[in-house]
Amino acid sequence: MTKSTAGIHHITAFVGNAQANVDFYAGILGLRLVKKTINFDAPEVYHLYFGNEVGSPGTAITFFPFEGARKGRVGGGQVGYTTFAVPEGALPFWEERLSKFAIPYEETQRFGETYLRFQDRDGLKLELVARKEGPNSKWSFGGVPADKAIKGFGGAVLYSMAPEQTMHALEHVLGLERIGEEQGMVRFRAHGDLGNLVDVNASVMGRGHGGAGTVHHIAWRAADREDQESWRAFVAEQGFHPTPIVDRQYFTAIYFREAGEILFEIATDPPGFELDEPYETLGEQLMLPAWYEPHREQINQGLPPFEIRVLEEDKQ
């Protein structure tokens, strides 16, 4: 049996202050907060999901904001850079926007493409690339019109403590195609049109440390629950140790750590974020799974308030 994922489902990271996180990803980057919930394993911490207008698979970056969190260190066993795709011709807009908010950036080249590299307020490493493929976002917010908005993921750059084994997992477990190598990077392609180009730093990287400004895990797409059960069996056959299927309300998930120490998740495309909220009000209310509803008041009291707001720089 062989299998192949369509690409990245979501990427989840640790950050510090919730309001600063929302201001950066909604206020500056123009993403939509599509879900405000909690870390199901630590209900005293938010789990915030940002993406296109509905947080489609391949667009959702998610965060665990923890006030006073220790600073992490990006390194081996992590996603090094999270790559966002914007429409063709939109990079000049984003250069101006990053400058407007005094966010330092650098322009780099890789596999014939131009990238704008920068960091969020917690030091999470991000980059923007212009791509034709993948549907445009329909969401606009603040100073970001829909025709310049982030589509979703372009992909990611992986930092591995055993890059040859990580690349083997990408190609022979997840079913990505190895399509190029240059300047110490190896590129893999999935068959989807977002979150489909993954680059691996071919050098062994020193171990990273989790904390604010680092990625916790990268999730790959499964078509549905039946496909996910097949994925779980297949991953186990390849010698990995996947978890049981876990209910994350908006998808179900399995997790396993590959040999380069990166935590992989495989998540289902359905049911999605409109499961418990209508399109018009996605992300506005704190949504809890049924098993936490009896504790809503206590949970609410322990979470810091924040608001989605147009920033001052966009009001001028």
From TrEMBL:
Domain of life: Bacteria
MF (Gene Ontology): dioxygenase activity
InterPro entries: Extradiol_RC_dioxygenase, Glyas_Bleomycin-R_OHBP_Dase, Glyas_Fos-R_dOase_dom, VOC_core
PANTHER family xref list: RING-CLEAVING DIOXYGENASE MHQE-RELATED
One Pfam entry name: Glyoxalase
Residue stretches in coiled coil: none
Domain VOC: 7-131, 152-269
Annotated keywords: Dioxygenase, Oxidoreductase
UniProt cross-references to CDD domains, sorted A to Z: PcpA_C_like (cd08347), PcpA_N_like (cd08346)
PROSITE patterns (UniProt xref): VOC (PS51819)
Chain's gene name: mhqO
Protein name: Putative ring-cleaving dioxygenase MhqO
Lineage, highest ranks first: Bacteria, Bacillati, Bacillota, Bacilli, Bacillales
Organism: Xylanibacillus composti
